[in-house]
Amino acid sequence: MKNNLIVGAGQLGSRHLQGLLKYNKPQNIFVIDPSVESLRIAQQRSGEVEHMHKVYFVSNWDKLPNNIDIAIIATNAGVRESVVTKLLEDHAVKFLILEKVLFQKQKSYDEVRAMLLDKGVATWVNHPRRMMRHFQQIKQEIQSVGTSITLHTYGMNWGLACNGIHFIDLVSYLSGSSVDTLDAVWVENEVLDSKRSGHIEFVGTIKGTLENGSLFTITSDRGTPGILTTSISADKYRWIVTEGAGNEVVSFNHENKAVVSEYTVEYQSTLTTRLAEQLFKKGTCDLPTYEEAYQAHVPYLEVLLEKYQQLSGQLTDTCPIT
């Protein structure tokens, strides 16, 4: 029987739990969190899914098995390095899934990278748009065009610091290229409080280029959150993807003729089921590997940390985003 683990029983962790519960092979699922209240909520949400698995809600690492098949680290970024270190020092892990933003310090990326190589743990980062079928279809169409792309994402108060990295990963995925340049010059000169206590946010635009010449801008403007729109172009072809309301893809061919199609929103509780299926069947999955994610996360943290230092006046190595 598989032993699977979720570290962090909060909002996202409980959705991962629901996804594992929908997997159709018997499992022991362990959920660990120091918060009794978080464990209670996760246990309540587990009751929303009919399943045949054994689920253990624990606060003590000693209650975990020595060998773990899938471990999902759904903690906040501030403690993720210490959690990964603790996990890999005491347990043998076959597949490791990390939530974003990975870490708040630059040195954490290299230290965890070295640890993963030393332990030989196959690791991916949860950028779920790579698993969404409408983006997979767009990628196939871009590949048939065989050119660099331009991507613009725009919305209001959707959490640039917390979520912007998802769209940098998306442009890397769609174009098949890595980040070359990245800057936060167009990010406004104000540090905002995040909805997550103890963390910060920004509004404005992050922009950059990829090694193959692709360009991107990612904007979170001031205003009431609503529809998030991503516009993608490759040669004479365009795609406009809306999220949050009227979930649609508008595709324009080389003659500028538009086709509108709706897509089904794939929530984390569904994607995690497919993730488990892929890992156990193929030993890999659609998510970016740690190494692939590293190429985007490191420059992303670098430019946001620099912006935070400038605006806060603090000479710190920690950028409090999650």
Automatic annotation (TrEMBL):
Q: Which Pfam families match?
A: GFO_IDH_MocA
- Cite the GO molecular-function annotations of the record: nucleotide binding
Highest taxon, organism lineage: Bacteria
Q: Which residues form the Gfo/Idh/MocA-like oxidoreductase N-terminal domain?
A: 4-127
Q: What is the recorded name of this protein?
A: Predicted dehydrogenase
Organism in which the protein naturally occurs: Pontibacter akesuensis
Q: According to the entry, what is the taxonomic lineage of the organism?
A: Bacteria, Pseudomonadati, Bacteroidota, Cytophagia, Cytophagales
